[in-house]
Amino acid sequence: MAHDRITFSLAGEVTLGNFRTAISSFTNLMEMLTAQANPESKVEWIISDLRFGSATITVRGEVEERDEVPVVEEVVESAEEIGKLASVHDFKMWTTYPRAIRDEVATMFGMLNGRIPTATLGPYTIDAPVAVDPPIGIEFNIPRREHTSIKGKIVTLDNKRGTYFTLREAFTNRLIRCWPTLNYRDQIAALWKSEAWVLVEGSYNTFTEKPTMTDITEIIPLGTAEKGGWKKVFGISPRGPGDSKDSVADIVRKVRDGG
Amino acid sequence: MAVKPKFYLETTVIIELIEQPKEAEICRALWQILEAADERQCEVFTSALTLVEVLFAEKEKKKGEPDPNVADLINTLWHPESSPIQIVPCHEAITRESLSKYREHWGKSSWSKSKGVDLVHLVTARREKVDKFFTTEGAMSKWASVMGFKVCRPELDQRKGTVGLFNGGSSDNH
Predict the structure, then answer these.
(1) Minimal CA separation from B79 to chain A, in Å
(2) What is the DSSP annotation of B62-126?
(3) How many CB pairs under 8 A join A and B?
(4) Could B81 and A225 be called an inter-chain contact, meaning their C-beta atoms sit closer than 8 Å?
């Protein structure tokens, strides 16, 4: 496997407490990145090198199934990307990362000072604590996670990294990677083949540039409809003699007033 | 690239579309708006809440029983294949903002007559950054200054045609 390991190190006089704190955050970071790459992944991160002096740990992704090789590569690339961002000290770059990941990054490099002047993550050197939040008073669009439903068509179905499908959202054409539970596998395959419109309910995440949907609780087929069908709805139920003389606005008002 | 105008359809205009005769000015105006949206010249939104405010047609009420054909027809307004209307989910952030906006303004004379549902429609439209909020409920227009968009009845553009409205086929819009 080409890209299966990542090294994290702290240079200088590293106390046991510093090391424990940094390793704890590094472990959490790797686990979160793995879950982000594939929530069902069984990848294990094995210590392949551990050195003192400058405290250095290298971990290697070990997989049981070859299908999971791309997951390891994606996690290593994501971890290196985090090292790169940490090295340039631009807080704006962190706004697309979830709170939990930002917190671990802040902790991993928060101890950099005179005694521990630098750290490395992958090939990148970090020389100061990393500010992962904007200064107080500056507003950003905060990435979010919300339980909602999104309407679209299933355009791809992938079994390589555990089953996921890509939903092309109606109107916006945004592509959203969705991670269903295995219970939905047959249903999804049928919906994909028939190019049906579906409403997918789950947790919509905008933590990264590529939005995802996880914890899917329902996939509702919307059936078929004729293009331009809206034109047939005009005047389908005109009022006639004996019907209410109240205006539509008054009727709706009554309903909203509980009348 | 020019920014497309965005419009919001509140429940009353959807019901007008169903209950008014096709030749009514509001139907002709809505036809123009939806046809423009179909041609991707504008975007049209409504809240998911609207689906449960358009419960049945008047003729079903008269018969006293649901008519599956009517349900199918109304559903064409909510299907992405057959309709250009984009349905915006109604979630907690929207309802919380609706509550907050309501409480902020309810002390003003007559504003307390507005209901939570009115605010859900208005706040949904505000979040979609619409240019105009279409409704036949005149009392909602007072919220225009708070929300930052025009609140009005759908307007007929006399320069455009609506022939398709009457023959069931394509319109004469070019």
Answers:
(1) 7
(2) HHTS--HHHHHHHHTTS-TTT--EEEEP--HHHHHHHHHHHHHHTTSTTGGGS-HHHHHHHHHHH
(3) 121
(4) yes
Q: Are A94 and A132 in contact (CB under 8 A)?
A: yes
- Considering Cα of B53, then B59, then B60, then B63, what sign does the dihedral take? positive
- Phi, psi (rounded to 5 degrees) for A62: -115, 130
Contact A228 B21 (CB under 8 A): no
The answer to whether residue B52 neighbours chain A at the CB level (below 8 Å) is: no
What's the whole-model pTM score?
0.67
Cβ <8 Å between B81 and A229: yes
| Chain A contact present for B20, CB below 8 A | yes
A79-110 pLDDT, tens digit each: 999 999 999 887 777 766 777 888 899 999 99
Q: What is the pLDDT of residue B172?
A: 37
ipTM > 0.90?
no
Q: Which residues of B touch A198 (CB under 8 A)?
A: none
> Using the beta-carbon criterion (under 8 Å), do B34 and A230 form an inter-chain contact?
yes
pLDDT in tens, B118-160: 999 999 999 999 999 999 999 899 999 999 999 999 988 877 7
DSSP A75-143: HHHHHHHHHHHHHHT-GGGGGGS-HHHHHHHHHHHTT-SSSS-EEEETTEEE-S----SPPTT------
